Amino acid sequence: MKEVAKKIDVIAEERIKFGLQAVVMEDRQRGDDEWRQTTSVVTEPKVYGRDRDREQVFEFLLSHAVDSEELSVYSIVGVGGQGKTTLAQVVFNDERVDTHFNLKIWVCVSEDFSMMKVLQSIIESAVGKSPDLSSLESMQKEVQKILQNKRYLLVLDDVWIEDQEKWNQFKYFLQRGNGTKGASILVTTRLDIVASIMGTYPAHHLLGLSDDAIWYLFKQKAFETNREERAELVAIGKELVRKCVGSPLAAKVLGSLLRFKTEEHQWLSVKESKFWSLSEDNPIMSVLRLSYFNLKLSLRLCFTFCAVFPKDFEMVKEELIHLWLANGFISSVGNLEVEHVGQEVWNELYARSFFQEVKTDKKGEVTFKMHDLIHDLAQSITGEECMAFDDKSLTNLTGRVHHISCSFINLYKPFNYNTIPFKKAESLRTFLEFDVRFLNSTLPSIPSLRALCTCSSQPSTLKSLTHLRYLEILNSRIKTLPESVCRLQNLQILKLVCCPDLSSLPKKLTQLQDLRHLVIKHCNSLDSMPSKISKLTCLKTLSTFIVGLKARFGLAELHDLQLGGKLHIRGLENVSSEWDAKEANLIGKKELNCLYLSWGSHANSQGIDTDVERVLEALEPHTGLKGFGIEGYVGIHFPHWMRNASILEGLVDITFYNCNNCQRLPPLGKLPCLTTLYVFGMRDLKYIDDDIYESTSEKAFISLKNLTLLGLPNLERMLKAEGVEMLPQLSYFNISNVPKLALSSLPSIELLDVGQKNHRYHSNKGVDLFPERIVCSMHNLKFLIIVNFHELKVLPDDLHFLSVLKELHISRCYELKSFSMHALQGLISLRVLTIHKCHELRSLSEGMGDLASLERLVIEDCPQLVLPMETAGYYRA
């Protein structure tokens, strides 16, 4: 109690010292969050006051560096919060960069310049996935392969390296990568010494924004859209923004703080705060501290906890809320569940500009980051209590540390913890492992833990963690979850993610009476659930439920559970009747966002099953779903509720997988929110939507952006109705084994992946014919992938319509012998041409000489090919 009293006294002294008044969080309308490591994506709606800076960077990239034989390096230097990353993002996403460079790579470096991590990030940025490579040499070879013969732009964001030798080694390696003339590196850093070490040109020093630009950023936050700009508040505000010294971050944070203050005396209180006179703080940090100390105490705890994550770490909103819950930072208020309180806290911190780069994926998962200055603020306040380590620095823990994370420098190198430092950390509450694959080490015993995220395959110490409330096991080779987990009576969150060998859960798992969230993802070997899951009456999330043959494993176990989030029900072939299905009570689960229903593979072998249609009819969900999928359904007809507009109209993502007996889909074309549609394995389907359209002015699939059609041998058209405009926003189209499909013009498509990828349909005559009539209508197509057309002998002339095509990739077309005379003549924008495993290919089109923009030609495993003279100088494997 004495310690508690001391802390209260300290808080009271802080309040008096800084002239602060008590703040009450204002009520706000609660609603769905619709907002979306630094990334290359520009998340600001509009960037102000940087036109001149942007053009100066372009002058370097497009003029000074273009003819340089040496790898050119240009640095953007400025204090924290000045907008360096935002400027780099604007440049990175400009069309002029797309035109000039044929490869763009974004790497967030942060304070640790590790060669392994930077190389890994280069590979991830270039190919879109993490490399399965364990040595520095293998990483280097892969990066050299990626950069070879390419004019690339590499952005290294937030660099702190002051080691000249380390930088020289990295730069020398890149120069040996054989990038073409004009390859460039753009660096952002706070330090002049970094710019002098790295740069081959004088640095661009980013100064503060003008008063007008800063005022605009401030008032966008302070007054919002509909709030009156009262004269007395404007006058105070214009005095305040001068204290931001041109920093866009400070302007946004200060404006966000004043958004919640409506009275003149409240604005004056901020203006006259003693924070502005603190000599040890720079003006930007003064703004950030002022905003922090205006938070309620509970919000301060939630904010400073974020220092446990490394800088530039991409956090997941739901996971952060769960960690807050596990550490007791949030609790239920009245009828408001603790998770909803967590949502309110997160929304409050976001509204006050403590979080940025918010993204929402198609299934509703929200990720975000903290600006590095905001992270510095959290770290300065929490001190040793919250720390982010790497595996080399995790050696000096003290009794003051409460929350730590550990990132692994070498993802695949065997690692064993030194248990001695952990013995000093007697009050450790949170331990999180990041950036690791299938760790085999044994965890140290830390009895005080409340939250643990681990990749260990040997969680033998779990039995001693009696206070544990949050347990996440990910990227682990664990085969069975130990029975000792069932003795963790305080456990509220259990997550099992990417554990491919996990085959069973403990039988006594239902003893965890406080369990609120059971998340199981990408654990494909798991084939059963513990019996009587209904005993977990506190469950709010059950991401996967596997139906068993016996009653205590049946759908009735879901009846009374008030589930939200995502629910994937597997094993529906074990449901014997519609009455059993109705017991799931899906219609009563109003908080569910995504529902996926799966019948096992052996269900298809039983032929048409009339009962399965009644089962699906009984699985009617509530209205308001965002995502829906169905797999392995063997009925002929979809249920009536799938033609109910009130159930379907909010859907964003829909999947139909292996519903082979169905001849018709529900009416999908009129769904206003549908952005992603995946249809696979429906042999008798003729139309994606056979609904009636009353007039030609009515459009179909107005929001659809991503469309995948696979294994639909009899599909003829998207719509049965003719003359209806459709797919105005479609940008990604993946089509395979759909030989009869006829489409009208699709000018918005940018990426087409077309091929014969499933050998199951090879016996169908005509399935290997290349659908050139589809391709020639795509006048905005930039990327074309042609795979596995085994009867394609000549690449058709129709390709010459694709005047903006940048990349053409042809693979495993084993009978392809030649390109037609005019196939390549119109491809004036083509930069990359790859041909792989076309064993009969003997010649390319004479139009190769017309490929004025071609920068890279890659030919692999084409033993018969004789290249024309004009390809001399290009790369051939």
From TrEMBL:
Source taxon at top rank: Eukaryota
Alphabetical list of InterPro entries matching this protein: Apaf_helical, LRR_dom_sf, LRR_R13L1-DRL21, NB-ARC, P-loop_NTPase, WH-like_DNA-bd_sf, WHD_DRP
Domain NB-ARC: 58-226
Name of this chain's protein: Putative P-loop containing nucleoside triphosphate hydrolase, leucine-rich repeat domain, L
GO molecular function term, any single one: hydrolase activity
GO biological process: defense response
Presence of the UniProt keyword Endoplasmic reticulum in the record: no
Gene3D superfamilies per record: Helical domain of apoptotic protease-activating factors (1.10.8.430), P-loop containing nucleotide triphosphate hydrolases (3.40.50.300), Ribonuclease Inhibitor (3.80.10.10), Winged helix-like DNA-binding domain superfamily/Winged helix DNA-binding domain (1.10.10.10)
Occurrences of domain R13L1/DRL21-like LRR repeat region (ranges): 555-682
Keywords: Hydrolase, Leucine-rich repeat, Plant defense, Repeat
Coiled coil start-end: none
Residue ranges of every copy of the Disease resistance protein winged helix domain listed in the record: 308-378
Repeat is among the record's keywords: yes
Annotated source species: Medicago truncatula
